[in-house]
Write a structure and sequence with these properties.
Layout: E1 10-14, H1 19-29, E2 34-39, E3 53-57, H2 62-71, E4 76-80, H3 85-89, H4 94-98, H5 102-110, H6 118-130, E5 135-137, E6 151-152, H7 160-178, E7 184-188, E8 191-195, H8 201-211, E9 218-221, E10 235-236, H9 238-247, E11 251-255, E12 260-261, H10 264-274, E13 277-281
Parallel strand pairs: 1-2, 1-4, 2-3, 4-5, 9-11, 10-12, 11-13
Antiparallel strand pairs: 6-13, 7-8, 7-9
Helix pairs in contact: 8-9, 9-10
C-alpha cells in the first residue's frame, strides 16, 4: 500500500446510504487519506474507522464543513450520499431546529438562485466551497467500478411486454430528469403509476404499489440528461430491491455507466431470490 502520510488527503462530505462507505473503503484500500465530514442524522458511524480524520456536522453548518476541510489541508472534496431535502426545507421552525451557521444562513437567504431544485442547490453549494479553495470532484475518478455496465444483471430477463414498459418509462424518466424533478418512474402497460419527486425512489416505488394492487410493474431509474457526475448520481441497492418486492414490482431498469449498484453481489442475489429483474441499459 502507498504511504498515506505522503499523499494529499481527499475530503469526503458524507450523507445517507452506503455510497460514502464504499468510497471511503476504496480510498483506504489505495492508501489515500480521507478527511470525512459526516452529516449527523444522515451519515453512518461506520465511516469513523475508515477515515484518517472524522468530523460530525449538522446539515446546515456549511461554514463548519469548510473550516474542517481547510484545517486538514484538503483541496478536493467528494460529495457522496443523500441528504433528505424534505426534512430540511419543509419542517416547521427549521431555523431553530437545525441552527444554521452564518455561512449557511447567508448562502440560503442572501445568495440569488432562480429556484430550489436539486441541481440549482447543489451547484450553488459547489460554488460556495470554491470560494474557499475547495473543489468538488467526482467520486468515480477513484472508483469507476461502482458504475454498472450494460446487461441483464439477474437470472430473469424482462419479457417483451416489460421491455415496452421500460422504453416508455425511460422516456418519461428522462423528461422528469430534464426538469430536475426526480430520476425514477413506475410504469405498467405504458401508463405512469408514480413519479419520484422530493420523497425519493423508495417511497415512489411503495406509492406505485398502492395504486397497482395487481403488481408486476416496472421501475425505471435514469441519470438526468446532463447528469453532473459529481453529485446526485442514481443509486440502487438492497433497499431498492426490498421495496420493489414489497410493493409488487417485477422489474428495475437502470441506466448503464451512470448508475451505482451498491453491495452489488448481495443486491442481485436478493433480486434473484425474489424472482425480480434488474437490467442496465443505454437507450439514449
Amino acid at each position: 500500500m502507498t504511504n498515506s502520510a505522503n499523499r494529499q488527503p481527499i475530503g469526503l462530505l458524507a450523507g445517507w446510504g452506503r455510497f460514502p462507505i464504499a468510497f471511503a473503503e476504496k480510498a483506504r484500500s489505495v492508501g489515500l487519506p480521507v478527511v470525512c465530514v459526516a452529516i449527523r442524522g444522515e451519515a453512518s458511524p461506520e465511516l469513523i474507522p475508515l477515515a484518517t480524520r472524522h468530523y460530525w456536522t449538522r446539515p446546515l453548518q456549511m461554514g463548519g464543513m469548510i473550516r474542517s476541510f481547510r484545517r486538514e489541508g484538503v483541496e478536493s472534496v467528494v460529495m457522496a450520499g443523500k441528504v433528505h431535502k424534505a426534512s430540511l426545507m419543509h419542517q416547521p421552525w427549521k431555523l431553530i431546529r437545525f441552527l444554521p451557521d452564518w455561512r449557511t444562513f447567508s448562502w440560503w437567504y442572501l445568495r440569488k438562485r432562480r429556484d430550489n431544485r436539486d441541481d440549482t442547490l447543489l451547484l450553488s453549494v459547489v460554488e460556495e466551497f470554491r470560494r474557499d479553495g475547495l473543489h468538488i470532484e467526482s467520486a468515480f475518478t477513484l472508483c469507476p467500478e461502482l458504475l454498472v455496465n450494460p446487461g441483464v444483471l439477474t437470472k430473469r430477463a424482462p419479457t417483451v411486454r416489460e421491455e415496452r414498459d421500460i422504453a416508455f418509462g425511460w422516456e418519461m424518466a428522462k423528461e422528469m430528469g430534464r426538469l430536475d424533478v426526480g430520476q425514477s418512474v413506475a410504469v405498467k402497460d405504458r401508463a405512469v403509476l408514480a413519479v419520484e419527486a422530493i420523497e425519493g425512489t423508495d417511497r415512489a416505488i411503495l406509492r406505485a404499489g398502492e395504486w397497482c394492487r395487481a403488481g408486476g410493474f416496472v421501475v425505471v431509474k435514469v441519470a438526468k440528461p446532463n447528469q453532473d457526475m459529481r453529485f446526485d448520481v442514481p443509486t440502487v441497492g438492497c433497499t431498492t430491491v426490498e421495496n420493489l418486492h414489497r410493493a409488487g414490482g417485477r422489474v428495475l431498469a437502470i441506466e448503464a455507466n451512470k448508475t451505482i449498484v451498491l453491495d452489488r453481489e448481495a443486491t442481485l442475489a436478493l433480486a434473484d431470490r425474489y424472482g425480480l429483474t434488474v437490467v442496465a441499459l443505454s437507450l439514449s
